[in-house]
């Protein structure tokens, strides 16, 4: 495994670890998800350059589009929960309540 792929795999794993451990604030969870999506984007970019298959070429752009949609939705949810609850702590949120 090349050092670049090892670094990107480690970044993805550290983002998953950060998402599972640091779940106090909603913004930290969103940043961990963004780190995972960025690592996936770079890994898919390297994969499409190294394999040079035409079917894999649009995959990094699709991942980037999903990442932008996820970031917009996440920030909208962050603003909505901070307006209704007064903070962004994840333990104060209960999904089952209206």
UniProtKB/TrEMBL annotation:
Keyword Translocase: yes
Membrane-spanning intervals of the chain: 6-22, 29-49, 61-80
Keyword Transport belongs to the record: yes
Main localization of the protein described in the UniProt heading: mitochondrion
Catalytic activity: a ubiquinone + NADH + 5 H(+)(in) = a ubiquinol + NAD(+) + 4 H(+)(out)
The protein's Enzyme Commission number: 7.1.1.2
Bilayer topology: Multi-pass membrane protein
Subcellular location: Mitochondrion inner membrane; Mitochondrion membrane
Keywords: Electron transport, Membrane, Mitochondrion, Mitochondrion inner membrane, NAD, Respiratory chain, Translocase, Transmembrane, Transmembrane helix, Transport, Ubiquinone
GO biological process, one term: ATP synthesis coupled electron transport
Gene3D superfamilies to which the protein is assigned, alphabetical: 1.10.287.3510
GO cellular component, one term: transmembrane transporter complex
Gene Ontology molecular function: NADH dehydrogenase (ubiquinone) activity; oxidoreductase activity, acting on NAD(P)H
Task performed by this protein: Core subunit of the mitochondrial membrane respiratory chain NADH dehydrogenase (Complex I) which catalyzes electron transfer from NADH through the respiratory chain, using ubiquinone as an electron acceptor. Part of the enzyme membrane arm which is embedded in the lipid bilayer and involved in proton translocation.
Family in the record: Belongs to the complex I subunit 4L family.
Protein name stated in the entry: NADH-ubiquinone oxidoreductase chain 4L
Source organism of this protein record: Dopasia harti
């Amino acid at each position: 495994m090349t050092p670049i792929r090892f670094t990107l795999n480690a970044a993805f794993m550290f983002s998953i670890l950060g998402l599972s451990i640091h779940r106090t604030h909603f913004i930290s969870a969103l940043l961990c998800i963004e780190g995972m999506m960025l690592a996936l984007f770079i890994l898919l970019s390297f994969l499409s350059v190294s394999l040079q298959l035409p079917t894999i070429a649009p995959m990094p752009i699709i991942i980037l589009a999903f990442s932008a949609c996820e970031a917009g939705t996440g920030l909208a949810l962050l603003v909505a929960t901070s307006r209704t609850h007064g903070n962004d702590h994840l333990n104060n949120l209960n999904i089952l309540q209206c």
